[in-house]
Specification:
The protein is an all-alpha fold and 365 residues long. The chain has one domain (22-361). The protein is built from 17 helices and no strands. It has helices at 22-26, 32-40, 50-73, 77-95, 97-101, 112-121, 135-138, 162-168, 173-190, 192-202, 218-245, 248-269, 283-288, 300-303, 311-316, 325-336, 350-361. The two termini are 30 Å apart. Keywords: Membrane, Transmembrane, Transmembrane helix. Residues 81-338 form the Fatty acid desaturase domain.
Length: 365
């Protein structure tokens, strides 16, 4: 959903602590040697492997729901917190397979999209249509970082208070999703203007408040219908559960999903450097505005799972399956070396990236 409607734009070296001015970033020419190597060195690892995708997604969902049940049923605050933390991390990982669904070939993993929506997307009120045909716009060569990019805001060039606001709004996401599916979608059946408004403004996992989604058509429109139906029926069941088992289980579940949303928003905050003011960028400039957090750090495995610790590399190779990104990074690093364009997108970790963006927002304009 576009949740940053209250954020106000402000004015705006790949050095670790100094933000590169937007104008310089736009002027970066493509590093053709890097782009060529990225394609040539990774052809043999570009196929999605069902033996990795299925156990990972199913295992993450199982652990997440088991821990969620444990958090609801546990006696004692300490045990509840332990179960809740496990539930947040596991459900977060399961949910982020929505990113893979937008990139893998439709014939690569038969049944995977349906199973993911049934087990994860619909139960978490985030079916795959909310990302499909949206995230690919973010990867479009002429859209990235522009006002037509649904997933871009120049956060590093905005006011300092935009960062905490960016994170805090995610807390309300579960309630917003429930209202959307249980109230607004059914209301849209009888009121076409509401239906159009909900689709255009509240049917995409986007952060750009100016983004308006086009109405779905064809096969995608039919898929949207069934996913919307399933999500709406599930939202009715969630509301009805309050009258059967009380409000506490739903409150705990929503608390856990809120934590998942905040964690994802935090990852989004450091997925890019957010230094572009709306001009079209070269592929290399887009790469350098994106972030890799490669090993030896282990924490990115938790806060940027399913390959998202290699987000800059993902912008070079959008169709590369998540399980191959680590090997692709090793090959490119070995081939290109540490004093090259490729190495400049690597950053030490979460705190470093947060500090970099925070310092940028507090600089005089």
């Amino acid at each position: 959903m576009a949740m940053q409607e209250t954020l106000t734009r402000a004015q705006g070296t790949n050095e670790p602590t100094i933000a590169r001015p937007a104008a310089n970033r736009v002027a970066i020419e493509d590093d053709k040697a890097m782009l060529r190597a990225a394609v040539e060195l990774t052809r043999d690892i570009s196929d999605a492997r069902p033996a990795i995708y299925w156990p990972d997604m199913l295992g993450s969902a199982f652990v997440g729901y088991a821990a969620l049940a444990g958090a609801i049923l546990a006696e004692g605050a300490a045990l509840t917190v332990v179960f809740a933390v496990v539930a947040v991390l596991a459900l977060y990982r399961a949910l982020l397979f929505i990113h893979e669904l937008t990139h893998i070939h439709r014939d690569a993993l038969p049944g995977f999209r349906f199973a993911w929506n049934l087990l994860v997307g619909i139960p978490l009120l985030t079916p795959s249509f909310m990302y499909e045909n949206v995230h690919t716009l973010h990867h479009a060569r002429t859209r990235y970082g522009t006002r037509e990019d649904p997933e871009y805001l120049p956060l590093a060039l905005m006011k300092w208070w935009s960062l905490p606001l960016f994170l805090v709004t995610a807390i309300l996401l579960p309630v917003a999703l429930l209202v959307r599916s249980a109230v607004l979608v059914p209301l849209g059946i009888v009121l076409p203007p509401v239906r159009r408004l909900v689709w255009e403004r509240a049917s995409a996992l986007a952060i750009n408040p100016a983004f308006r989604r086009r109405l779905p058509t064809g096969d995608f429109g039919r898929m949207v219908f069934w996913q919307e139906l399933g999500t709406t029926l599930w939202s009715f069941a969630l509301v009805a559960s309050i009258f059967v088992i009380g409000w506490m289980p739903l409150a705990i579940a929503f608390g856990i999903i809120s934590a998942v949303a905040v964690l994802n928003q935090l990852r989004t905050l450091v997925a890019h450097l957010w230094e572009n003011e709306g001009e079209a960028m070269t592929v290399t400039a887009q790469y350098l505005d994106s972030v890799n957090v490669p090993p030896p750090g282990v924490l990115p495995f938790l806060w940027a799972p399913v390959g998202l610790r290699y987000h800059a590399l993902h912008h070079l190779l959008p169709s590369m399956p998540y399980h191959s990104l680590g090997e692709a990074h090793r090959r490119l690093s070995a081939h290109l070396g540490m004093e090259t364009t490729y190495a400049r997108a690597s950053h030490p970790g979460l705190l470093h990236l947060i500090g970099r963006i925070a310092r940028s927002t507090m600089r005089p304009r």
